[in-house]
Specification:
Elements (H helix, E strand, L loop, with lengths): L10 E3 L2 E3 L6 E5 L7 H14 L3 E5 L3 H13 L5 E4 L7 H4 L5 E4 L13 H14 L3 E7 L5 H6 L4 H18 L5 E6 L3 H14 L5 E3 L9 H14 L6 E3 L11 H14 L15 E4 L10 H12 L9 E5 L5 H4 L5 E5 L3 E6 L2 E7 L3 H24 L1
Parallel strand pairs: 3-4, 3-10, 4-5, 5-6, 6-7, 7-8, 8-9, 9-10, 11-12, 12-13
Antiparallel strand pairs: 1-2, 13-14, 14-15
Helix pairs in contact: 6-7, 7-8, 8-9
Amino acid sequence: MSNLNRSSRKIHIGSLIIGGDSPVAVQSMAATQTQNLDETARQIEILEEAGADIIRIAVDNEADVVALETLRKKFPKPIFSVDLQENYRLAPKVAPLVNKIRYNPGHLYHLDKNKSILEKVQFIVEAANSFNCAIRIGVNCGSIDPEYKEKFIEDQIEGMVRCAVDHCKILDDLSFTNYCVSLKDSDFDKVIDANRRFAKERPDVPLHLGVTEAGLPPEGVIKTRIAFEQLISAGIGDTIRVSLTLPNEQKGQEISVGRGILKDIEQGRFRSVPKNFLDGINIIACPSCSRVENDKFVDLAQEVREITKYAESHKITIAVMGCRVNGPGETDDADLGLWCGPSKVNLKKGTEALGAYSYDDILSRLKIELDLIISARNSQERSVRE
């Protein structure tokens, strides 16, 4: 799909061009541990068969880099993007193996605290330049740079936008222009708002769109569709990722769903949203990735939906996150949040940690906390009426 209304510049990701009047590219991410070569290779095969324009793989340590090198030899043709996670130092080691490097400004402070953010970004840029890689500045609601989170505590969306704009200036000042930006949230309204604000200020920068932790189909598809319809129809968005919580063998759906949404937008088929959509219980869940430490996470998300059906009329948000990297931060805004470790699931009520429970025990404890919230709200409503 092309859109002549887009004013973004064109950038090169290997042989792929995004931006300007280029077709909107559709991408996804391997949801497996990168070092599990058989499963990760299978993910790449599934995404290739589905027609992914870009396949993203995460690296967090030296062993992941070795695995990535093996995977690249096995799959020399796909456009690979790499997610640096919390380890920016790996940039020069992965750059020869991929076509794009994604870094999260909110993760740069983890290592080498004696070095400035500018020094760390310059290190990534030098690696990208050396091997002709594109860069994605990936700003995420659950891991905003602490400096911006504190400064814009009253308007977190503005904090995300300011962080993205400032990092664009860093790259511009380093004479590096082959980059794009993403501003993601699990709330589609916030995704729309953030990307509109950024595009108004930097219409030249290509945008990667996505509703992070959109969750399970069909709700996850609807949330994503709303954001994409509002933005792409306005000329905002150059590549997309549909983030759905799916079993690994079904990850190709992210590509087919994305292409279906793009086709509908191009042909003017906009789907109406039910009037009361998300007025009741709202389950957000991440799409899983190599950071997930227990494969039970996807099943758990399905089970959470099943056991909470009795509360579907209550406006309550439950977040189910698959890892320790974004899980703690991305559950803060939910009424109840679960972030999953290797053997325990951490339960939160807003920002308050309630404890860690086994995968066998977490659902019963979640139900107790859900009932307490419902009971408290019912009591409050009775008091108001009286």
